[in-house]
Amino acid sequence: DAFASGGSNGYDHKAMGITARGAWISVQRHFAEMGVDVQSEPVSVVGCGDMSGDVFGNGMLLSKAIRLVAAFDHRHIFFDPSPDPAKSWEERNRLFQLPRSSWDDYDKSLISAGGGVFPRSMKSIPLTPEIRAMLDVEDEEMEPAALISAILKSPADLLWFGGIGTYVKAAAQGHGDVGDPANDRLRVNAEQLRVKVVGEGANLGVTQAARIAFSLNGGRINTDFIDNSAGVDCSDNEVNIKIALNKEMAEGRLALDDRNALLVGMTDAVADIVLEDNRLQALGLSIAESGGTADLASYVRLIETFEESGRLDRAVEGLAANDQLMRRAQDGQGLSRPELAVLLSTAKLALQDAIEHGDLASGPGMAGELAAAFPPAMQEREADAIAAHQLRGEIIATKVANRIVNRLGIIHPFELAEEEGCSLADLANAFLIAERLYDIRTLWADIDAAEMAEAARLALFADVASGMRAQIADILRSLPAGTLPGEGHD
Fold it and tell me: What is the pLDDT of residue 488?
């Protein structure tokens, strides 16, 4: 019985569609901040993949407003210049349900005028007026590699990656820098992209340098490790659940059949936990990004701090030199979302490590924090197993570190620790004390639920983060070092 997905009893990522659903949350946030609800307002999509694939197939079924106008995989190129969203969704769903499908299985009678499915083995593909208009090209025919490049450069709303390969590099990079020679002839530069949003359901579709270039040109993109993290997160949750339940089985308190039934029954709840993680990390990036040029100097200082501690290799992560970063202020630009994603993950790891090595996780006030990491059914039926979890410290540290960075942003925790001369572990203690004392989680939930423009929502979250910073500073000055939070609102 494998711990991660694919075991005889566990969570099947493709059946749950979890990776695509997580990445789609990133897409929803990008468009929401542009004033578009992708669940109800039509968006034109071009993509890499086909409906038999986990991430592409599941992803292209997540909104019935999707207008998939072009896609390609290793076999075919698909065009539907003016799709009917409802009918095309039904046909994509039919293909997804087939045991194995390709774009050639698409019902050609449902494809709009000028569209079609073309094998990549053709020497040249004729372009109808409708395809030329959609791609904004003058050529009347193209060989397949050039046509795929044209799809990548087309003026659609969303570019969705669900297939294998690296298709976008920065202009400053050579194809040899990418390490994917099979797609050298197809690859385009980020500076040539005309889509508004890139969703990275698949790994490595875009280089980090390309992400940064696209973002600085006004495009909206995160990173693959942000967008498609739900699959790994789902496996992590499965491991944590099984460790607790397997101990109960080994000690005779839980039968195998009962454990398996419980696993199945918790599928939707596990997905909810995972997707909330995706929602909050995408929101956390937006909160971090909202500081703009005003935060540049603080980020440069933080990058230096991470470098000095050995947590960050600037060259490996593609972060520019300090003077280059600071020059962006003259152009009214702060750090890009792909750069902030690197700092977000680095910040979380630093905090997680500090919390694990402190006293917080073993404190009496953390039982609720640990329980909340598991589905409600498991909290009700296996509370003792959760309380005795072998990874108690690691789970609590992960959850708390995530919340601190997602909610306070990347800068506040580290500046506070430096200003107050405290450890990151003490900072985490003070964060939880302030959070419980002022019932901040209710305030966050109210802001999340309120109907308002996303710019206003982000401004409110930033205000709460600033207020929290002030309260945490007071707590650090007022209470003895090492003071731990109690349960509830102590």
Answer: 46
Mean pLDDT computed over 327-339: 94
* DSSP 8-state assignment for residue 490: -
Q: Which residue has the tokens 């202020």?
A: 329
Check residue 487 and give its pLDDT.
Answer: 55
Whether the CB-CB separation of 69 and 156 falls below 8 Å is answered with yes
d(CA 46, CA 314): 33
Q: What is the DSSP annotation of 52-119?
A: TSHHHHHHTTS-TTEEEEEEE-SSEEEE-SS--HHHHHHHHHHHHHSSS--GGGS-GGGSPTT-EEEE
188 sits in which H/E element: strand 188-189
What is the average pLDDT across 290-319?
A: 95
**All residues at 6 or more sequence positions from 205 whose CB lies less than 8 Å from its CB, including other chains:** 48, 161, 163, 165, 166, 167, 168, 198, 224
Tokens 């959850």 found at: 399
DSSP secondary-structure letter at 361?
T
Q: Look at residues 66, 4, 76, 15 and name the one whose alpha carbon lies nearest to residue 37.
A: 66
| pLDDT at res. 406 | 97
Which two three-digit tokens encode residue 246? 């397997």
Q: Which helix (H) or strand (E) holds 282?
A: helix 267-289
Report DSSP state, residue 382.
Answer: -
pLDDT tens digits, one per residue of 369-428: 999 999 999 999 999 999 999 999 999 999 999 999 999 999 999 999 999 999 999 999
In the chain, the amino acid numbered 128 is T
Confidence (pLDDT) at 486: 80
Residues 6 or more apart in contact with residue 282 via CB below 8 angstroms = 25, 26, 29, 222, 226
Distance CA 147, CA 145 (A): 5
pLDDT in the model for residue 314: 95
> Which residue's structure tokens are 């003058």?
138
User: Quick one: pLDDT band at residue 152, thresholds 50, 70, 90?
Assistant: very high
Residue 324 DSSP label? H
pTM tops 0.85, yes or no: yes
Q: How many CB atoms lie within 10 A of CB 301?
A: 15
The one-letter amino acid code at 258 reads: D
Residue type at position 27: V
Run of H or E including 169:
strand 168-169
